[in-house]
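All the exercises in this workshop are built on plain-text protein records. A record pairs a protein's sequence with a compact description of its fold. The structure tokens are whole numbers drawn from a learned vocabulary of backbone shapes. Once this layout is familiar, the rest of the handout is easier to follow. An example says more than a description, so a record of this kind follows.
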Amino acid sequence: MRRPPSDERAVSHCANTTAAWAWRHPNEYCVTSKQKAETALYERLRDETELTANLVQKGIRRAIEATKSGVARLKKGETTSQPHFDAWSVVYDKRSATFHRDQVSLSTVNGRVECDYVIPDEPAGTPIGEYLLNENYEFRMSTLQYDRSTESFYLHARMRRIESDDREQSTAAASNAKHRTVLGVDLNVDGSLAVTSTGAFIGNADEMNHRRREFEKTRGSMQQAGTRSAHLSIQSMDDREHRWMKDELHRASNQILTEAREHGCTHIAFENLTDIRKRMAGVKRFHAWAFRRLYEYVEYKAEMLGIEIEQVSPAYTSQRCSKCGFTHESNRRSKHQFVCRKCEYELNADYNASKNIARKLLKRLHSGQTSPGGGAPCQCALKSGTLNLNGGFTASVSSTAEGESTDKSTTSVVGY
């Protein structure tokens, strides 16, 4: 495989940090609750490693399982000690990796990366030919192992033979599958913090910017004083600012998830946050941090709801008309106004971008389907219904719109 960004140390760090926190023998009872460990350590480990939510949770759970085993041995009177993890490996399942026959898409600290398999010219008679390239076998949970001596990565793929009954059930499930519905989310440095493809305007980026500037002014005045009292006041103010920001971002993440649940969404699409400071004018370190933390909160909470989170390329999402598809840089008349030069469709620019973000994930989901029957239908969640890739619009039960799937957004949820 081509070498992806290194995550194995970060996962081991999560596991070892959790083990040190959970292992309290002989002075106290060891912690064997995954929920307690995640509550206590999740945010800290996300900050320290920048791993995705799924991988941080895997590291935590790996340590808790090892702690449970250790406690069981202690109860039997056996000698054991705090678990320690030094193997450079990462466990991937279908939520953190997408397995293909010629490559794998892995979730890493730098976003998704595509890694090609090293396949021999004559795979017949090899395990690769017998299992990897055999459509009668499907991928299960796999382990990415790093070989220090060769500086290479190996994917130990666990595969299961698909029996005839399984195949029939899989085909039946595909034909009766629930719609895969995508909610698109556009992030902004001014106006609303986030705008969804369902027309919800969430959070208030302008208020965040104002509060941030006020904090910086006060901090600057105190720094000039140079006294110990001023230093302690600055620390207290920094803590207060951080708590306020986290609270606002938690509120915004909850509203995004509420939109997803109310519209029956199975997926939420964000633009890729890698190098966002270089791409978006006006994005400072503060904004990049807020965007990433908001994404993390949504990702973490969505996993508990069974909703998948994906990032897509932001290319042309602000220039493409979500109604006719015409793409031109002059379509965006101002920060918040979009008017298509071809079909003259007019709407809020951020709302338009959120629908294009959703559409990008729709295309990825649709192209990744392998079912003979075409797989589950894919559609984008809008404020008045759903829209598929072919332009087919289905109005929601409560909607009176007749095909107006790309109307100007009217739903406005700002602040709380």
